[in-house]
Amino acid sequence: MYAREIEADLTEVLVTEAEIHAKLAELARRIEADYDGRDLLLVGVLKGAVMVMADLARELRNHINMDWMAVSSYGAGTKSSGVVKILKDLDTDLTGRDVLIAEDIIDSGLTLSWLRENLESRGAASVEICALFRKPDAAKVEVDVKYVGFDIPNQFVVGYGLDFAERYRNLRDVAILAPHVYS
Ligand code: 5GP
Ligand code: MG
Ligand code: MG
């Protein structure tokens, strides 16, 4: 269904577009109920969370704001460095805000545990996390993630915003990247 050269780079589709959308709708119902009557600030982590943010935001039927951050932790490789650097900061003052970080995937957890602390230190009223994917077997630090889409095996996946060397973000599904691509 993708171009032949892309199909050759994928081992298997792990989660389909339809499954992703159904899950985001389910999470959105919980989020709406939890934040009833409060303006929520969705913080998207560029670039991987672009698709999650776009689809989750459109599922939510209450008031939301959106802002974006870019942090580096991976470069072009497949392993987290644990060193997080802000490449683009928020435009929004977080004082008193209810913040929900919209993330694509939690692997080691290093990026998100750092990010949560960073946002909390700016005086937010609350900071919670919504991550579409989580790899429980890869966790190096425990991160309390209130909204999780799918727990997946400890394999490198691409699609739906997730890249390898900036490719594959445009795939509608999430698929396991064939090892020949990165080894
Ligand atoms: P962590 O700090 O939790 O190890 O990973 C943070 C970031 O690494 C994620 O937000 C994501 O951008 C990237 N990452 C982690 N696992 C994967 C994966 O399986 N595939 C892709 N494409 N990126 C990943
Ligand atoms: Mg990310
Ligand atoms: Mg990446």
TrEMBL record:
<dbReference type="GO" id="GO:0006166">
    <property type="term" value="P:purine ribonucleoside salvage"/>
</dbReference>
<feature type="domain" description="Phosphoribosyltransferase">
    <location>
        <begin position="19"/>
        <end position="164"/>
    </location>
</feature>
<dbReference type="InterPro" id="IPR005904">
    <property type="entry name" value="Hxn_phspho_trans"/>
</dbReference>
<dbReference type="GO" id="GO:0032264">
    <property type="term" value="P:IMP salvage"/>
</dbReference>
<dbReference type="GO" id="GO:0005829">
    <property type="term" value="C:cytosol"/>
</dbReference>
<dbReference type="InterPro" id="IPR029057">
    <property type="entry name" value="PRTase-like"/>
</dbReference>
<keyword id="KW-0547">Nucleotide-binding</keyword>
<keyword id="KW-0808">Transferase</keyword>
<comment type="similarity">
    <text>Belongs to the purine/pyrimidine phosphoribosyltransferase family.</text>
</comment>
<keyword id="KW-0328">Glycosyltransferase</keyword>
<dbReference type="InterPro" id="IPR000836">
    <property type="entry name" value="PRTase_dom"/>
</dbReference>
<keyword id="KW-0479">Metal-binding</keyword>
<keyword id="KW-0660">Purine salvage</keyword>
<dbReference type="Pfam" id="PF00156">
    <property type="entry name" value="Pribosyltran"/>
</dbReference>
<dbReference type="GO" id="GO:0052657">
    <property type="term" value="F:guanine phosphoribosyltransferase activity"/>
</dbReference>
<protein>
    <recommendedName>
        <fullName>Hypoxanthine phosphoribosyltransferase</fullName>
        <ecNumber>2.4.2.8</ecNumber>
    </recommendedName>
</protein>
<dbReference type="GO" id="GO:0046100">
    <property type="term" value="P:hypoxanthine metabolic process"/>
</dbReference>
<keyword id="KW-0963">Cytoplasm</keyword>
<keyword id="KW-0460">Magnesium</keyword>
<dbReference type="InterPro" id="IPR050408">
    <property type="entry name" value="HGPRT"/>
</dbReference>
<comment type="pathway">
    <text>Purine metabolism; GMP biosynthesis via salvage pathway; GMP from guanine: step 1/1.</text>
</comment>
<dbReference type="GO" id="GO:0000166">
    <property type="term" value="F:nucleotide binding"/>
</dbReference>
<comment type="pathway">
    <text>Purine metabolism; IMP biosynthesis via salvage pathway; IMP from hypoxanthine: step 1/1.</text>
</comment>
<dbReference type="GO" id="GO:0004422">
    <property type="term" value="F:hypoxanthine phosphoribosyltransferase activity"/>
</dbReference>
<dbReference type="GO" id="GO:0000287">
    <property type="term" value="F:magnesium ion binding"/>
</dbReference>
<dbReference type="GO" id="GO:0032263">
    <property type="term" value="P:GMP salvage"/>
</dbReference>
<dbReference type="GO" id="GO:0006178">
    <property type="term" value="P:guanine salvage"/>
</dbReference>
